[in-house]
Amino acid sequence: MKDIFDRENEISLLKNSLDSPLIVIMGLRRTGKTSLVRSVLNEEKVTYIFLDMRRFENKEYIVYKDFIQVLEKEINRIVKKNRDLISHLQIRGVQIMGISVNFSWGRDKVELSDIFSSLNDWGEEKGKTVYIVIDEAQELIKLKGYNVLYSIAYAFDNLKKLNFIITGSEVRVKDKFLKLQDEESPLFGRTHIEINIKPFDKETAIRFLEEGFREQRINFEDKERVYDILGGNPGWLTYFGYVYIKTKDEEKAIVNTKKYAKKLLSREFCNFLKEGGRDKRRYVKVIETCKEGCRWKDIKNSLEALEGREINDGTVRDIVNNLLEYSFLIKEDKEYIIADKLLGEISDLRC
């Protein structure tokens, strides 16, 4: 677990929860959710299928074909190491081609529940649990014409050798995708384990940089300054360390990290705006208003100043809730704060 810094509690909770049929890991992008899952599962030497939904973040919608092709690729990766799995995949909609499989997504499409059942049967035969990891699962909200939750619910209730680990941003993955508290959701009322991954606080970020540079035998003094500029997102701190080790130039490393971070954040924010056909001016104004923290009244006043007219409370509420849902804002002690401070430095969004 040497690649996971200061996540002892989260590591322990995940390890101790691996017998749970449903684990939900929540946190902002680049805080280490994926690394945590992969590191624990690899250390425990379990069989897992990793479905990376980040590939769909630039799409306005996806269809069953998109999802099933990701699953096909991952199962073929497993089949290469476990050729006896092939015999369990002789089901409707699956074509066996030597030591690989092809999933049909047309008229005779393979059913997700049948795939899950086949994996479960193989797990029972081998005496082990198979884990399905759906990373950044909130992207599946875009899936049209097919609801994967019914298949997950079926597996939860009937397939004892198949467990699920779902990762994503808190509001969207828990309330919008899984809908665990929605009586209409197939997963309503199902017991599950929740693990929250947060950005580093100042003390932890400084220790993270300190230990990283110590491993490289580098004496780096400006750790606090780096935190003050970049914040506590482990992804940005790691990138800074990488550039600094290559260049030995602190300013260059900071500039390059900010450029890299802003590029990713801009892309994610633009996708957010396009996905909902949202008013760019309004949302950018809210981000600017909340750079140093703000209250609901501050947001309403800033939007009204922007447009020179009164804006009703419902409109303001929708804007704020959308930003919270997509984890661009977080709420602490009745104040709204930008989840990633570097987002507040993006003034020229070209989207």
Automatic annotation (TrEMBL):
Protein's name in the database: AAA family ATPase
Species name: Sulfurisphaera ohwakuensis
The MCM C-terminal domain, residue ranges: 280-336
Coiled-coil intervals: none
Domain ATPase: 5-239
GO molecular function terms attached to this record: ATP binding
Superkingdom, taxonomy of origin: Archaea
